Amino acid sequence: MRLRLMTAFALAAGLLAGAAHAQQAAAPAPAAPDLNAIPDKMPFNQPYGAPITMERAQAVIQAGVAEANKRGWAMNVAVVGNHGDLVAFGRMDGAQLASIAISQHKARVAARYRRPTRALEDGVQKFGFNYLMTLDDAIASRGGIPLVEGGKIVGAVGCSGGTGSQDEAVCTAAADTINKTQ
User: Fold this and answer.
1) Which of 23, 58, 150, 162 has CA 20 to 30 A from 89's CA?
2) Domain with 127 in it
3) Which residues of 79-95 are buried (b: 16+ CB within 10 A; e: fewer)?
4) Over 60: is that where the pLDDT of 10 sits?
5) Order of all β-strands in the sheet with 76-81
6) Helix/strand/coil for 55
7) Is 132:32 a contact under the CB 8 Å cutoff?
8) What is the CATH number of the domain that holds 123?
9) End-to-end alpha-carbon separation of the chain, Å?
10) pLDDT tens string 87-114
11) DSSP string, 63-81
12) CB-CB contact of 111 with 153 (8 Å)
């Protein structure tokens, strides 16, 4: 009896693994960018502007907290200036303690690298560009978004405490307070 159960379990696991593999094989992988191509223009070459004020940074945090509250998520939300140094921070009650530093790290990277941290995550996850993890102060995890006003980066917001997609959703709502007012 025990042998039959183990055999049935092994067959079921094999069928499930085969079905999952077939689904993965059916979806084409995105084409990796040619790392030897020389672009005409610098990518992510957005200029820096004057750093965000504390008042505006606190408004960004409040927008992120409002989105997190609406969804029932406890988050840490950090806003940095264009230089990547902390301007304002909010930790919701019950938010994961380890995510305090992670939210600040995501914001810092988004400001200094002038791109959402999702670009680094995609580079590593989708294209296998593991060298991105060797860059100074890099974090390949979504949830960091530059704040752009008048075509210039004034800072960035970073969110952490949930899954990457949750962090990014809260971060997008927070960033929209600056990025959509142009």
Assistant:
1) 150
2) 54-179
3) bbbbebebbbbbbbeeb
4) no
5) 86-91, 76-81, 152-160, 144-149
6) helix
7) no
8) 3.30.450.150
9) 70
10) 999 999 999 999 999 999 999 999 999 9
11) HHHHHHHHHT---EEEEEE
12) yes
